[in-house]
Specification:
Blueprint (H helix, E strand, L loop, with lengths): L1 E5 L8 H14 L5 E6 L4 H5 L7 H8 L7 E5 L2 E4 L4 H11 L6 H7 L7 E6 L4 H9 L2 E6 L3 H21 L5 E9 L4 H16 L5 E3 L3 E2 L3 H7 L11 H20 L7
Parallel strand pairs: 1-5, 1-6, 2-4, 2-5, 6-7, 7-8, 7-9
Antiparallel strand pairs: 3-4
Helix pairs in contact: 1-10, 3-4, 5-6, 6-7
């Protein structure tokens, strides 16, 4: 089972939207059996699909067993480990209980025969965030080119280097995903160039820039309809958004040797 964590050291950068669409595209276009785990304290992936608060992810990590009791099918080949307010409680409890950083990786290893890909939607911070990074084969870091959001990559980078080291494992691959990009501003170009240079400097350590996702209001529309952008009525703008997402998914899949079947 390949594991992709979607995170950034700052909120509001499009983590959930990216996680949902990565999971959906891998399930439908790559025909992978995908589990989307909602470890966001605000359980946005669960709300995205219009699912009920079932205490799923929080209850699962606290008990460490019976994953099937906490998983909801949301589309063909795609299952959701639902989030709830219990996720925040679980985050604190795991930290206070001194669970090792490898806990999530070990926990999901028991179910590796059930799924081909695990996609983890995370909070911007917390112990579950660190555990998700340790568990990941690859981390996708959505990053709008705005000053405060670009700082979130720096926050993530410090966790990326320290959490796996503390857990005694190798740091995962990293793909920085330029997200909600508005090329009409000069700030966008300046921040893009600066971040691209920084990523190039550490490419040997497993960092790469992924294709960009331009700003597109249809992602908000899709969320309002509890759908992905692939599932709403096609317009030129919707098609452009679908192509951008598929370019990012192809980049991630290529790094993990996941082959497309259709």
């Amino acid at each position: 089972m390949k594991t992709i964590a979607v995170t950034n050291g700052k909120g509001g950068v499009g983590k959930t939207t990216l996680a949902v669409h990565i999971a959906y595209a891998l399930a439908t276009r790559y025909e992978q059996r995908v589990l989307l785990a909602d470890f966001d304290r605000q359980w946005q992936s669960t709300k995205y699909f219009g699912c009920e608060d079932t205490n799923g992810a929080g209850a699962f990590v606290l008990s460490g067993k019976r994953l099937d009791d906490h998983v909801t099918p949301v589309s063909p080949n795609l299952w959701l480990l639902t989030g709830s307010d219990l996720t925040g409680v679980a985050d604190v409890a795991l930290a206070q209980g001194r669970k090792g950083g490898n806990y999530l990786r070990t926990l999901f290893d028991f179910y590796a025969d059930k799924f081909d890909v695990l996609v983890i939607d995370t909070s911007a911070h917390g112990y579950l965030n660190e555990m998700a990074i340790v568990a990941a084969d690859l981390v996708a870091v959505p990053t709008p080119f705005r000053h405060m959001d670009a700082d979130g990559v720096t926050v993530f980078a410090s966790i990326w280097s320290s959490a796996p080291q503390a857990a005694g494992t190798h740091a995962p691959l990293v793909s920085v995903v330029p997200n909600m990009i508005d090329n009409r501003t000069s700030v966008t170009g300046d921040l893009r160039d600066a971040l691209s240079r920084s990523v190039a400097d550490i490419q040997a350590e497993g960092w790469e820039m992924a294709p960009a996702i331009p700003i597109n209001t249809n992602f908000s529309r899709a969320f309002g309809e509890a759908r992905t952008i692939f599932q709403i009525a096609r317009t030129p703008a919707v098609t452009a958004g679908c192509i951008a997402i598929m370019d990012v998914v192809a980049h991630l899949a290529g790094r993990l040797n996941i082959e497309r079947t259709n």
